[in-house]
Specification:
211 residues; alpha+beta; two-stranded antiparallel ribbon; binds nickel (II) ion
């Protein structure tokens, strides 16, 4: 059940927090944890925050197609926000998603995984296409204008902050909240999936949630 999955993710998070020595890491973990708490709300509260998650979008896929929230009738959407230059969180999460899709078997056909970039300046459709193909042929990367992507991120309560890197000309990284969103075929938010859940946990959760 969702509760079990959340508990497993929280336990790992506690463990990682104990190991954290840098303030940045602690801050990043708190950002993720508070985001999840906000998303999941109080026990028994099924309507509060959940109804407000998600919304319409119109973006460009890695293969050049225009993709909207209505481009996949009958399918659940598995949406993750990040960027291809991300050094650890995005690759680890997308590996988890790819592994979960493998484990889902026939049910994977009910799910369309989407990777929406928050770094449109560097993540062109071609860059996204190469990147997502390295994880799963099912994974579709989406980009758009900075304004369009900010709007979609806001709809999903995704926060991100740009960090300029010293000593590197024009170098920057992005801190971003890290939650996978499961959206139903009717466009409604079903549940958040912790991005640090294992592929086994993700597959179990998705398998129970889609039909
Ligand atoms: Ni990332």
């Amino acid at each position: 059940m969702p509760g079990k999955l959340r508990y497993a993710a929280r336990s790992r998070r506690r463990g990682r927090r104990a190991l954290a020595v840098g303030g940045g890491l602690v801050a990043a973990l708190l950002l993720v944890a508070s985001g999840l708490l906000w998303l999941t709300g109080a026990p028994g509260d099924r309507s509060g925050g959940q109804a407000a998650i998600g919304g319409p979008f119109k973006l460009v896929a890695g293969d050049g197609r225009v993709v909207t929230d209505r481009s996949f009738p009958g399918k659940y959407l598995l949406i993750y926000f990040g960027y291809t230059g991300c050094r650890d969180v995005c690759p680890a999460t997308l590996n988890g998603v790819a592994g979960a899709l493998d484990r889902l078997g026939a049910k994977a056909a009910l799910v369309q995984p989407l990777f929406i970039t928050i770094d449109p300046a560097r993540d062109t459709p071609a860059v996204l296409q190469r990147y997502t193909g390295g994880f799963s042929p099912l994974l579709l990367g989406l980009t758009g204008s900075a304004a369009e992507l900010r709007k979609v991120a806001d709809e999903f309560k995704v926060s991100f902050v740009v960090h300029r890197e010293e000593g590197e000309r024009a170098g920057y990284t992005l801190d971003h909240s890290s939650v996978i969103y499961l959206i139903g075929p009717d466009g409604r938010f079903v549940a958040p999936i912790p991005a640090d859940a294992s592929d086994v946990e993700m597959a179990e959760f998705i398998g129970r949630s889609v039909s």
